[in-house]
Amino acid sequence: MRRIIVLNSKGGCGKTTIATNLASYYAAQGRVTALLDYDPQGSSIRWLGTRSDDYEPIHGVEAYQRSRGDVTRSWQLRVPPDTERVVIDAPAGIGGQDLVDYVSQVDVILLPVLPSPIDIHAASRFIQDLLLVGKVRSRDIRLGVIANRVKENTLVFQALERFLTSLRLPFVARLRDTQYYVRAAEQGVGIHDLEESRVERDKEQWAGLIDWLEPPAAEAGAEEGRRRTHDSGAPGSAASRAHGTAYIGK
Q1: Where exactly are the structural domains of the chain?
Q2: CA distance 126 to 31
Q3: Which of 114, 187, 235, 247 could form a disulfide with 119 if both were Cys (CB 3.0 to 4.6 A apart)?
């Protein structure tokens, strides 16, 4: 089971769009997929509610809702035992111990950044928190940055590109600003489910991200071996993740 969290302390950067499109992609590929929505706005769950039965199912968890007195938190956040990919839509404003709680139990962090001076500044501070507070490198958690809603050949995009290049972190995708994501969201599907020829460019922009998320089998096996060695016996470790529960955060 691989757990991927879409995370940024700043709201409005497109976390839900990336989370829902990624979950939809995995489901279409035949992966048993779960989508955990920790954002109080519940946008991912609403998207899932509009999804037709004609598409591959995605197990949704309303993680933003607190459990009732007669139900434990871990039971509320359980996922099917055969789940292969868990995609987590995280809330904005995460910091401190909450940040540690979220990142300590995932395998991959995707950080979307918008091309604006405010977003670039906020992202630089949040990346510092991920490295110093979340300790993502010492935990062997993969961190990839996504330039989201970009308009290429603009000065602000060029500034964003220079910033992302300076981070020495994987710059895994450039996703353009297009209404096709809005159209897909209205139907409860992802960009890969749209059959119009005009979305081929968008599908191509996702290809690099998918390749980064899904390395060749030999590389993935070596990475899992390193993680098991690092995490063996620890809370939130690979061993404790294998029991069909997806407890992330509080």
Answers
A1: 2-232
A2: 31
A3: 114
Tokens of 71: 């139900």
**108: nearest Cα among 30, 215, 202, 196:** 215
Instruction: Provide the token pair at 37.
Output: 């929505």
| Residue found by looking up tokens 């060695």 in the block | 229
Q: Which residue is listed with tokens 């962090």? A: 109
Q: What is the Cα–Cα distance from 52 to 104, expressed in whole angstroms?
A: 34
State the average pLDDT over residues 243-249.
54
CA distances from 104 to 73, 108, 109, 134, 212 (A): 17, 10, 11, 7, 20
Query: Would you say residue 40 has pLDDT above 80?
Result: yes
Q: What is the mean pLDDT of residues 78-102?
A: 93
pLDDT at 216: 75
pLDDT at 240 over 70: no
Residue with tokens 């070596």: 222
Q: Which residues contact 173 (CB under 8 A, 6 or more apart)?
A: 144, 146, 147, 205, 206, 208, 209
Instruction: Answer for the pair 187, 52: CB distance below 8 angstroms, yes or no.
Output: yes
For residue 36, the model assigns a pLDDT of 97
Q: Are strands 33-37 and 59-61 parallel, antiparallel or unpaired?
A: parallel
CATH of domain 2-232: 3.40.50.300
How many Cα atoms sit within 13 Å of 27 on the Cβ side?
28
